[in-house]
């Protein structure tokens, strides 16, 4: 089984959840020998009050997550499948063999590795129903894709908070559906990009490219994708993705320009042909 981690947000009637799930088990679940669900929950109020900064808090929680996964997998071969993060708690989920988990061993490990309390419970879940609950639906899968794209932009030095033209690709089954959606989109502040061609799909032969001047922060992109997904679903359409030009941060621009300048200088200094 290959790891295939995805991150997305899910809104319920009572709270906002940030979910990390390993979709790599999707085609294999349920694993016959792993019939029990283990949950470990941290109260974030207690941890947050002792952390000097948000960065320190994140680092502390990441270290705990890594240590817990290593201990659980080596001690009783637990399968780490996902995590739920809310404003008040952080929950880690594993599947284990029946009766493999030991509360006493967990207590001893916690006393050695973590200064705060953590709640744990084990329950029967042979069908892996909770794992399927963690898996993203169609819209949430788009959120996973958004997170991957934005992470890649940040990694390349993009200033995601800087507004730019963000393009969205929509596909429709019928020309009339596209026309109706186009009229609504214009009232919502989107620009119709008639000059930007896009490939049609056999099942959705009527494409439409739209744009909006936005930043590409995750919350912003998810909001746009959510409203567009809802609109085109009502018009027999399909959301086909988004894209934008990069806006480099100042330090990234400096490094890029410095490399160009250095390259040009070295080229002038090279002996060349004789």
From TrEMBL:
Keywords: Coiled coil. Residues 145-243 form the Regulator of ribonuclease activity B domain. Residues 47-74 form a coiled coil. Residues 3-133 form the DUF695 domain. Pfam families: DUF695, RraB. Gene3D superfamilies: RraB-like. This is Regulator of RNase E activity RraB.
